[in-house]
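the two lines:
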Amino acid sequence: MKDLTITAKQIRRELILLLVCFVIAEGVNIFSMIKYETPWTEFFTQIGFVLIITAALYIILIALRVLIWLVKLIIDRCRK
Amino acid sequence: MEEKKTMDRRSFIERLGGLGLAGAAVAAFPWVEACSPAANKEVAKEKARIGMIGPGSRGYFHLENMKQIPQAEVVALCDIYEPNLQHASELYPEAKLYRDYRKMLEDPNVDCVVITTPLFCHFQMAMDAMDAGKHVFCEKAMAYNIDECYQMYMKHLETGKILFIGQQRLFDPKYLKAMAGVLAGNYGPVVNVRNYWFRNGDWRRDVPSPELERHINWRLYREYSRGLMTELACHQIQNGTWATGMLPEKVMGTGSIIYWKDGREVFDNVACIYTFPNGVNMTFESVISNAHFGMGEQILCKDAMVDLPGSRVYFEEPPRKSGIESLIAEIEEGIFSNSAFAGTSFSAENGSKDKGIAIMPEADGDGTVEIMEAFCNACITGKMPDKVLEEAYYGSVFSLLGDEALLQQKTLSLDEKYYLPTYKGRNGA
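prediction for all of em together
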C-alpha cells in the first residue's frame, strides 16, 4: 500500500479554506442580525449555527474540488 | 411510584404557588381551599363515612380513588345490579351491601352518599339523601332536566347539606393554572370558546341478556339520558362559563342520528352554539363515528389560544427566533412553498404551526381524586366550599338547555327563574 503524504502547505491551505468558510458563515449571521434587527449578542449565542454553516460550506467546497479534479482527470485522459 | 403520585396531588396548591399563582388561584377558585393541605390538616384523623349508590364503571373508579384518600371510609354499597355490587364489595369487603338506596339512607353509619347512577335517577336519590340528612356527591350531569337541577340546588340551601357535582375539571391543576392565566387577562380578552369531543364507537356496553338492554345501555335512551349533551358537553360548557365569567344568553344547535341507527334514541352527532352577553360564542361539537380530532377544549383569546386538556398556550405572535433561524426559515419557505399560478387573490390561511408553550407540564391526574377529597373534607367540617356548586349547576343547566335547543330546533334562553339567587356569573349576567 502506498503511503499518503500530507504536506504542511496542504494543511495550511485547508485551514485557510476552513477559516474562509467560518468568516462567510459569521458574515451570514451578521447579515441576518441586521436584516431581522436582532440583538448583537447573537454574534456569540448563535455560534452553533455558524459552525454548522461553516461545516456545510466546507463540505460543499470539498465536493466542488473533487468534481473539478474528476473533470480534469477525464480531460487529461481524453487528450492522451 | 404511588407515594410520588400522592405527594404530587397533595401539593398541587403549593405547585400553583410556586408558579406565582397561589393567591390569584385561591381568589378565582375559592373551592380549591377545600382540598388544600390546610383543609386536610383540619380533618386529620377524621373520616367521612361514605355510602355509594351505583358502583358501576364510574362508581368503581371513584371507589378505587377513595383508597388514596385517608379521610374517606366506604361503609356501604348499594346497587340493583348484582354483578356490580359484588365487584365493588371485593374492593371494600367490610362495607354493608344494600339493594335499595332508601334503606341505605336510613343507615346512621352513613354520613354522605356518592351517587353514580344513570342520569334519570340523580334527582330523586339526591333529594331523598339530603332529606335523610346525608351529604351528597352526585356525578354529572346534575339531573335530567333544568327544573330538577334547580330543586336540588334549593334543597341544598334548605337543608344545609353539602352537595357536590362531579365536575372534576374544577379541581384539575392543569385547568386551574390555565384558567388563572385566562382570568388574569394574560392572553387578552376571551373572543371564542371551542369545545369538541369526537369518538368512533357505538357507546354500547355488552348486555348479558336482552331484557337488560335499556338498563345497561341507558345512555342511549331518552327516558334515562340526554345523550352527548349530558354525558360529554356538560364538562366543556362549564369551562366556557368559567373562562368568560359569564352565563350564556342563548343557545342554538342541531343534532341527529347519522351513523349508529341501532334503535338508540339519543343523537350520535350534535353541534351547539352558545352566545354570551358580550357576543362571544362558545361551540360544542360531538360526533361518535369519527375520532380524528379527539377531545378539545380551547379558549381563544386575542393574544393566544389556550388548550386546556393539552395544558399549552399558543401565542398569536410566538417568541422571536434568532436572526439566523429567521433567515434559514425564509430560505426554506422560498424553496418549499407553492408558487402562486393565478395571482394573489387567494392563499390558503393555514393554521399556526407554533408548538406552543407548556402551561403545567408536571401536572398529573384530572382532578377526580381532588374533588372527592374536597367533598370528604367538606362533609367532615360541614363547610360548603364557595362557588363549586354554582359553577357545576350552570354547567349542567346550560348543557340541558343545549339539548332542549337541539330537540326543539330553536334558539333558547334560560328562564329567568333558573338563575341562582346566589350567583349569576362573576360579571353578574
